[in-house]
Specification:
binds zinc ion, Rossmann fold, 7-stranded mixed beta sheet, about 350 residues, 2 domains, alpha/beta, about 25% strand, 15 strands, Quinone Oxidoreductase, Chain A, domain 1
Length: about 350
């Protein structure tokens, strides 16, 4: 990074990455400029790389961004130069739409998505909307905080809002980038935790992450296994296969809820019988608001919940992304900006 330019890895057209030197811009009204220190590589970056949204090319992906504020736009209040902040998928609420005025910042009508509607964090610098910023506690490193801004916030917020009480049985479906955090949060929130994945080999990891029970869905019927434990109050669905959800849904106890946080191409089929008999619910949860982001990072620092991370330097972003998409990352890739 020079005084006038910064390096970024941008997508020039679907599937094509390129390392670029971009001119440093001043933040506009209500925005800050961040000197990026770390950026997580998330599965949803595929929305940018594959061009799933209408995107103006080139576009810099990345929505698990941590760095220090190095310029403040006009009208920004509550944030200071040099402060370490995070930016997640939701880029910041408008404050005036119907949903904002009702306190629902996640569903703000004018919400932009980081790395999709504007450039994200695969870069040494980025411009961010102040209303979307998350504060990073001193006792978390930037690398450790990065994956918590999307994968962490998503699982933490979903578990926190699912209505379960301490001691209730929570099932975490899938132990990948999201699930390995979900298991830890559920454990530290005081739940009885069952992790569900395919294969006996994941059992040891599940226990290490804090699961009280491990259900190998390749060898056991997860519905029977969950019902033997009394039925799950919540199933946190981090696996992207719709079929797996359909095969697990009846493991919910009456009034239980399956909360879907992992995106996949398959439809989730649930029979009306299984919904009605037992008053079960199936719902989705889109990351969380910035205050819940603050809480995610604070709770992670207090409890020691942390993502298992592999780092790569910025210029290796295409390789890091490829590894993540191939399902070979253990468990979150984080780009570092060495200067
Ligand atoms: Zn709004
Ligand atoms: Zn994400």
């Amino acid at each position: 990074m020079s005084a006038t330019t910064y390096r970024a890895v941008e997508v020039t057209k679907p599937g094509e990455f390129s390392l670029a030197n971009k001119p440093l811009r001043d933040p506009g009204p209500g925005q800050v400029r961040i000197r990026v220190e770390a950026c997580g590589v998330c599965h949803s970056d595929a929305a940018t790389v594959d061009g799933l949204f209408p995107i103006e090319w080139p576009r810099v992906p990345g929505h698990e961004v941590v760095g220090k504020i190095d310029a403040l736009g006009s009208g920004v209040q509550g944030w200071t130069l040099g402060q370490r902040v995070g930016v997640g998928f939701l880029a910041g609420s408008c404050g005036y739409c119907e949903f904002c005025r009702n306190g629902d910042l996640v569903n703000c009508k004018n919400q932009e998505y980081t790395g999709i509607h504007h450039d994200g964090g695969y870069a040494e610098a980025m411009i961010a909307k102040a209303s979307g910023l998350i504060s990073v506690p001193d006792d978390l490193t930037s690398v450790a905080a990065a994956p918590l801004l999307c994968a962490g916030l998503t699982t933490f917020s979903a578990l926190r809002n699912a209505g379960a009480k301490v001691g209730d049985l929570i099932a975490v479906l899938g132990i990948g980038g999201l699930g390995h955090l979900g298991v830890q949060y559920a454990r530290h929130m005081g739940f009885n935790v069952a992790a569900i994945a395919r294969g006996a080999d994941k059992g040891e990891l599940a226990k290490k992450l804090g699961a009280h029970h491990y259900i190998d869905s390749a060898a056991t019927d997860p519905v029977a296994a969950l019902q033997a434990l009394g039925g799950a109050q919540v199933i946190l669905v981090t696996a992207s296969s719709g079929k797996v959800v359909s095969q697990t849904f009846k493991g919910l106890r009456p009034n239980g809820v399956a909360v879907v946080v992992g995106i996949g191409p398959e439809a989730i089929e649930v029979s009306s019988m299984d919904l009605i008999f037992g008053n079960r619910k199936l719902e989705g949860a889109l990351t969380g608001d910035p205050a819940t982001g603050d809480a995610t990072l604070r709770f992670s620092a207090l409890s020691g919940v942390s993502a298992i991370i592999e780092t790569a330097p910025l210029e290796k972003a295409p390789e890091a992304y490829a590894k993540m998409i191939a399902g070979k990352a253990r468990f979150r890739m984080v780009l570092t900006m060495d200067r």
